Amino acid sequence: QSLLNRIRVLMARFLLPRADKIRVVSQRIKDSLTSELKITDSKIEVRPIFVDVERIKNAPIKIDLHKKYPQFEKIILMASRLTWEKNIGLAIEAMREIIKTKPKTGLIIVGSGPEEKFLRKKTITYNLSPNIVFEPWSDDLPSYYKTADLFLLTSYYEGYGMTLVEANACGCPIVATDVGVAGEVTSYVCQVGDKQCLVSKILEILK
Q1: Vertex 184 angle, CA 182 and 187, to 5°
Q2: What local confidence, expressed as pLDDT, does residue 167 receive?
Q3: Could you tell me the pTM of the whole model?
Q4: Beta bridge partner(s), residue 122
Q5: C-alpha span between 145 and 57 (Å, rounded)
Q6: CA 177 to CA 206: how far, in whole Å?
Q7: Per residue in 119-132, is it b (16+ CB within 10 Å) or e — as a string?
Q8: Confidence check: pLDDT of 85 > 90
């Protein structure tokens, strides 16, 4: 994606095989290091990012998305930085297909970032403004997870995927690309970039 990331990859390929111990946040990353860099399994320890699951489970619902947006029968939630690697444009493209079957479905995108202007323009270009809402980042995401019908993640890659763990703790069904810990929290997983798979699995849950 960038020159800086390319430099980081080169540094990692040099330094990681020489490390005495490596901490990673998911089994997926451990598997990639053992297969791609041939690092000994015993040198790698999986320690997930801490998520206070009990606090999230017990958090009261302060905002009900269905009451806030009564025009939607079904609500899909995304909570993310609006950056290239999150591939939120794919979710907007998927919405074009979803509303053909479920016209009163809404996509709530919570977050901000350098891609926001592009994503808003894409929403307008696809005539999806009645179905897609952009909200700034919220400190009350548990309320959003608990009142949405589905949580969607479309990233090209994730080191971990904290929002997936949070949504799962709230009992929100999840559809995600096969990144980070997606396979550990949901069976509704699609290959990166597979729009038709995402549409199919989203409609399966919404029905």
Answers
A1: 75
A2: 98
A3: 0.90
A4: none
A5: 10
A6: 18
A7: bbebbeeeebeebb
A8: yes
